[in-house]
Design brief:
With 358 residues, the chain is α/β, with parallel strands linked by helices. The chain is 38% helix and 20% strand. The protein has one domain: Purple Acid Phosphatase, chain A, domain 2. Strand 10 and strand 11 form a beta hairpin.
Length: 358
């Protein structure tokens, strides 16, 4: 019976969830991003950190949207947990700073005690970064508890064994050539009417969606090789970032990987516009494989490389994606399963000096 209901209901239920999960308002998005950026730069340490770094020597990994749960049918992190642990082991060994960009814990569907009990290994892996003073934890809409509950500090102490400061954002600053580069990071739910503290969304997720999802064992996050153009929310994030001088914006929230302001499908279209011969045929074949047939080829004239999205750590095939900043470069990476092993794959890469900015 469950398999029959999965076939009949998975697509319409996911479409309903998507309609209810995101309602970004342009004015609210712009104001929220601008206000937080101003707050961090004028009063660093309160709502966010400002970190000066050496682009050649320092290393950062940005992962978001684990949605750690109870290892039940509604836990979309369960299949990705092994990849997440392998990634953290690698990044700790290579002395990366880990920036957790929010929605790390699924606190709309679960109580914290349950999450703690079923995610001891992942919390222990994160503690290794704390021991090196190399862990920055940013809250999202699904783990807003970390920011607004008076007992959050006690809970964090119980989980990590030491005090952990929670932020709404962070800014990395470096100099590339003779120009200062600001890398602004936040979860990205700000200005989303269905996510920015909205009570109805929380009720729908916890009391309607979660039980239904648990029974049908549905994960709405399709594989990381995205077959769509940017979501409306990601487009608004790009618009904001494109108007800032020498600034990159990195968010999560939408679960859609974006690199240099483009999804995978959009990047293929851009490459196709300059390709000829066999290369053009190969690119077109990739587009045909991914492409939603009712979409139109986008126009990338004037696009800047100002917006990035880390994707998520809960794709339905167990893959996770993230952003690396290291070796004077920025990369979109994926950790996926090859047999029983977890392997790191570079999906896109660019030198920081080669980015097209305002």
């Amino acid at each position: 019976m469950r398999k029959l209901l999965q076939r009949l209901l998975t697509k319409p239920v996911i479409n309903l969830a998507n309609r209810l999960s995101s309602r970004p308002d342009k004015k609210r998005v712009n104001k929220a991003l601008s206000d937080l950026y101003q707050n961090i730069t004028t009063n660093p340490g309160k709502r966010g950190r400002v970190i000066e770094f050496n682009a050649e020597k320092d290393r950062f990994v940005i992962l978001s949207d684990q949605h750690k749960g109870a290892r039940d049918g509604a836990d979309i992190f369960a299949r990705s947990a092994k990849n997440y642990l392998a990634a953290l082991d690698h990044y700790d060994h290579e002395k990366f700073v880990y920036i957790n960009l929010g929605d790390s814990e699924e606190l709309w569907e679960n109580i914290l005690l349950t999450i703690k009990r079923h995610n001891k290994n992942t919390f222990n892996a994160e503690k290794k970064f704390l021991a090196r003073n190399a862990f920055i934890k940013i809250f999202g809409n699904h783990d807003l508890y970390w920011d607004n509950d008076p007992l959050a500090a006690v809970s964090l102490m119980q989980i990590y064994g030491q005090a952990v400061k929670i932020y709404e954002g962070a800014i990395l600053q470096t100099t590339i050539g003779n120009k200062k580069l600001n890398i602004y990071m936040t979860h990205g739910h700000q200005g989303d009417l269905q996510s920015d503290g909205n009570w109805f969304s929380k009720w729908f997720v916890s009391d309607v969606w979660a039980p239904f999802q648990a029974y049908l064992r549905i994960n709405p996050n399709t594989p990381a090789n995205n077959d769509q153009l940017k979501t409306d929310h990601n487009s608004l994030m790009y618009e904001w970032s494109s108007k800032r001088e020498n600034t990159l914006l990195i968010t999560g929230h939408t679960h859609q990987p974006v690199f240099r302001s483009l999804t995978e499908l959009e990047a293929l279209y851009e490459k196709l516009s300059a390709a000829t011969g066999n290369e053009a045929m190969q690119l077109q074949a990739k587009i045909d494989k991914l492409h939603l047939k009712d979409s139109r080829p986008p126009d990338f004239k004037g696009y800047l490389d100002t917006y990035f999205n880390s994707g998520c750590c809960c794709f339905d095939d167990g893959d996770i994606t993230g952003i690396e900043i290291a070796d004077s470069s920025i990369r979109l990476i994926k950790w996926g399963y090859k047999g029983k092993d977890s392997v790191r794959i570079i999906l896109e890469e660019c030198l920081l000096k080669d980015l097209k900015l305002q």
